[in-house]
Design a protein that fits this description.
- The chain has 227 residues and is mostly helical.
- Helices cover 81% and strands 0% of the residues.
- It contains 13 helices and no strands.
- The protein is globular and about 55 Å long.
Length: 227
């Protein structure tokens, strides 16, 4: 229990970003026609951060269920890698804890645990569950308070997805110009394909961008990032 509490303390900084993001997700979900129970339940059961916002945004734009599922599958493939890395690093774990750890794995908790000197599964769960609950809290706050906020404030939450990706991409773009070129190529491709493929353009442009990145980005940069 002491390890879990220690991990929970390490996860507190994540909550300052996740609560506002959860509110932003709720704003889009409610606007897309999801009811409060569906909005909050998605955070507990799916918990994909950007994936949830993408799903709600696509629903708002009239995307099909299959398009939403496939888009989230492609966008969230990175969680397979992150979960594998975590489970290879932790000590004295078991199947139930591994399943829980995989469910609450997101970019921020993975990054924070990667920097931790303690490889206890309870440290990771403390970090990850704290982040998870803060996201769910943000969604709940959003559901019950959005009607009380001015329209200008609720509309501002709709840009939270873009702010999230900008925050994730900026450090990498500063370090490597090839990453910047890859981002531009993928973005332009998504805009062009959007004229023909609609909501499916995100899936295609992501896959094409990943393929281009395999040849465009130096292996030395990728390996240095993994180290």
């Amino acid at each position: 229990m002491s390890k879990f509490i220690e991990g929970a303390k390490k996860g507190i900084p994540i909550t300052f970003g996740y609560i506002p993001m959860g509110i932003g997700y709720a704003a889009i979900a409610i606007k897309a026609g999801m009811n409060p129970l569906e909005t909050i339940s998605m955070s507990f059961l799916v918990y994909a951060g950007a994936g949830q916002i993408i799903a709600a945004s696509m629903l708002l734009n009239g995307a099909t269920t299959m398009a939403i599922i496939l888009t989230n599958f492609v966008v969230n493939l990175r969680y397979f890698v992150m979960s594998t890395c975590v489970l290879n690093q932790v000590e004295e774990s078991n199947i139930p804890l591994n399943i829980l750890a995989a469910h609450v794995t997101v970019d921020e908790s993975f990054a924070m645990f990667s920097l931790s000197k303690d490889s206890s599964i309870w440290i990771y769960l403390g970090i990850a569950i704290t982040a998870w609950l803060s996201w769910c809290l943000g969604a709940a706050i959003g559901v019950f308070t959005l009607d009380l906020l001015p329209v200008s404030v609720t509309n501002s939450f709709n840009i939270s997805l873009y702010a999230l990706f900008v925050a994730i991409l900026t450090p990498a773009i500063k370090e490597n110009k090839q990453i910047a070129v890859l981002v531009v190529i993928t973005a332009v491709l998504n805009v062009i394909l959007g004229q023909f493929l609609g909501n499916w353009s995100l899936i295609v442009s992501t896959l094409v961008g990943a393929g281009v990145g395999m040849y465009l980005v130096d292996d030395e940069y990728v390996l240095a990032g993994d180290a």
